[in-house]
Amino acid sequence: MATVSHSNPDMWGPLNEYDERVQTRQLREDEHQRGIVQSLQDLHDMLKDYHAPKVVHPSIESLKSPSRSLLGSLFHRQPPKKRTQLPPNLPKGLYMFGDVGSGKTMLMDMFYDTLPHNITSKTRIHFHNFMQDVHKRLHAMKMEHGTDLDAVRYVAADIAEKGSVLCFDEFQCTDVADAMILRSLLEALMSHGVVLVTTSNRHPNDLYKNGIQRESFIPCINLLKTSLRVLNLDSTTDYRKIPRPPSGVYHHPMDKAAISHADRWFRFFGDFENDPPHATTQQVWGRNIQIPKASGSAAMFKFDELIGRATGAADYLELMRSYHAFVVTGVPGMTHRERDLARRFITFIDAVYESRAKLVLTTTVPLFQLFMSPDEVDDALEGGRKAGSVKHAEEHEGVDDVMRQMMDDLGMSMNMLKNSSLFSGDEERFAFSRALSRLSLMGSQEWVEQGLGMEDRGGLDEKLDWQRLRSRWREDSM
């Protein structure tokens, strides 16, 4: 595994490099590609202030499975796995995917060669070679210490010692042996403070398609989508001049990249050329709703400005009649202490969904933790196990995976919520489940592209159909 020491005293970043190549005509100015480079710059800026924690190797004894008699194993379940803790200051890495010719290698070069001076060691390796090296190390560990050992955690600590930034070229999974260990390997690397940056030909959802025991690989896909910022390098074509941003509509945590994420989507959905961003007011039943920033058919709010005030369904419906897209920044996690905020936010989500509008969010926590903290999820899971409505710990991959499933599985949501104290009745629990499900749907490419005249969606005819649907919704909600 190739690791090099690196110093960049001039703090030359990816955007500087990109601008120079455009000026010297090595590259042609491309707004979509510039958006990708801005994401690289965002991570570069976060890394300037980042110092990875000292790697602490686990002892061999701590990696061995607890011995248990046959009789004991018949009557006792395995204790739940401890949740892997990631350093609170760990910058969110990048997962860049695109077809051949989308510039993956050039962009990775640009990022890797301009890492800031405090990143004193870095590793870049082809993913296939990386996995071969990992399997050799695992084999050597098991030959020396036996097979009843979680060798992945030990190998991850070895790798983490050699660099705080790990760059993979051509991330893929075609082998069942890789699929079985990837989630725990990547999570262990990040727990030691390693920032991951990777390129791939495929979106995480398309990795290991039709592979043996693919269901066991789903937790790894969820980890990639939650812990890395997924960027689409392929420039999509639509009827407007501005290419769509490279990342999805939801972003966490509230890091430096969150600002550029919100601004780019606001520009995409707005109309800066004909209607520059401005503050305005909307009247509802004789009182004013302040819109801090509007452009064209898009409105942008901080969470406190929209949900923190005494607003309700009538306010949200009026906003839906005037705007087709909403950017809401700084959405917090809402536990039982913020129950009123959670109810109000769910009402807003329902209004956006029913009006077929677009929604962009920057959040402090992953989407699946918006309404329940990890501790509350633990309590709800334990209650569900005792009631028989939720599987036991050894039958699923962990709390986070159950919560991710909730966004697509209303039944699982209801089972979880029956054992949660966050909402007081079945009606509220159903509203919560529905909100997660709707957020998941509104984050899909199909929802975002609907009504924009995208060529692969039917172009102008599809755009007109969507406008007629919006118009009918406005009439029905009068």
Automatic annotation (TrEMBL):
InterPro entries: ATPase_AFG1-like, P-loop_NTPase. Keywords: ATP-binding, Nucleotide-binding. It comes from the Eukaryota. One of its GO terms (cellular component) is mitochondrion. GO terms for molecular function: ATP binding; ATP hydrolysis activity. One of its GO terms (biological process) is protein quality control for misfolded or incompletely synthesized proteins. The keyword ATP-binding applies. The keyword ATP-binding applies. It holds the Pfam family AFG1_ATPase. Belongs to the AFG1 ATPase family. This is Mitochondrial ATPase. It comes from Letharia columbiana.
